[in-house]
Design goal:
By secondary structure, the protein is α+β, with helices and mostly antiparallel strands. An eight-stranded mixed beta sheet has the order 1-2-3-4-5-6-8-7, sandwiched between helices. The model has no long low-confidence stretch (mean pLDDT about 95). It has one domain: Aminopeptidase (3-Layer(aba) Sandwich), CATH 3.40.630. The chain contains four helices and eight strands. Bound molecules: coenzyme A.
Length: about 170
Amino acid sequence: MTTQTLTAPGLVLRPLELADAEALYAAHGDAESHQYWSSPAHKNVEETRAYIEETLAIKGAHVWAITESGGAALGRIALFVLREGVGEIGVIMRPEASGRGLASKALDLVLAHGFGPLGLHRVAADIDPDNSSSISLFLRAGFTQEGVLRANWKTHIGVRDSVIMAKLKV
Ligand SMILES: CC(C)(COP(=O)(O)OP(=O)(O)OC[C@H]1O[C@@H](n2cnc3c(N)ncnc32)[C@H](O)[C@@H]1OP(=O)(O)O)[C@@H](O)C(=O)NCCC(=O)NCCS
C-alpha cells in the first residue's frame, strides 16, 4: 500500500523523500537526538540520504516527513507493518522543532491511520529505558508499558534493554 499524506490542524505528514535528507540531517546528525537510536549520529547528509533509502525499501514501511504545512521536514515518523495487523512506530524530531507537540500530533494521526485504513489491531514501540521523552510521548498517546526485553540491542552506547510499549485498537 502506498503511503498517503495525512493532515490535521497545523500538521501535514507527507511521504518522506530522498530530498528530505538535508533537513533530516539536523536530527540524524545530532548526537543527542541519536543517543537512544539504534545507530550513532550520521556523519554527513549522504549518510542520512542512504538511511532514508534503506528505510523506504523496508517491506511494509510507511514513512512520513513531519511538516507544518507540507514544506520542510521537521522530523520523521515511520510505521512498519511487521505482520498482519501488527505495526511498530519510530519517530525522531529535529532538536529545534521538539517540545512543540508536533511529535504527539503526528503520532495520533499515524495511529488513526494504522487502526483505520491499514486495519491494524496492535501498534508497538521499542524504546530505550533511559529515553524518558520518548516513553512520555507514547504514554500520552495511550500506550501501555508491557515489559522489558533484556539486552535486546547492541548500539553505540552498549548493550541495551528495550521497553516494549503498545496500544491496541479499541
Ligand atoms: C521523542 C521525541 C520524538 C519527542 O518529540 P517532541 O517533539 O519533543 O514531542 P512533543 O513536542 O509532542 O512532546 C514533548 C513535550 O512537549 C510538551 N508540549 C509542548 N507544547 C506542546 C503542545 N502544543 N502540545 C502537546 N505537547 C506539548 C509535551 O507535553 C511534552 O512534554 P513532556 O516530555 O514533559 O511529556 C524527540 O524527543 C526526539 O526526536 N528524540 C530523539 C529520537 C528518539 O529517541 N526517538 C524515539 C525512538 S523510540
